[in-house]
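Entry:
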Amino acid sequence: MFKLDLKRFIRDIPDFPQKGIVFRDITPLLRNQEAFKEAIDRMCELVFDREFDLVVAPEARGFILGAAMAYKLGKGFVPVRKPGKLPYKTVYEEYQLEYGTEQLHIHEDAIEKGQKVLIVDDVLATGGTAEALIRLVKKLGGEVVSLAFLVELSYLEPRKRLEGYDVKTLIVY
């Protein structure tokens, strides 16, 4: 059924956003309609057996994948944004990137107590963003049932930070 080698559609950008980092650019995959469709279909397959109410995803590329998956799976979508981007009252978490510190914000009423959540993002690198997303979901009373990523940078050992969670990835480096 699935036929594409999706790794072919990921472009390596050396020394971006800073020297020593190899950025895995998914825009060629997004640009190709067959690759994008197959990536979404395959990511949905990764979580077909999980029961959840909402897909939570961070900007920017997480929005693209998360919203598409939420639509395909018939679930609600919750955007998580950088500071100052959401119009209503928010709660936030700080986290470390492999190249700095950032904050993630979510509307304080985005998740109801007890709702089950799938977290979606484009790349699982250090696990810092995923940890912050988990903390946000828990802060609002939600339960993270799974995390799904298009790409995992296994050489950074991100799963160590996510022990105890169901982590699914499509492409592993």
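The chain has four helices and nine strands.
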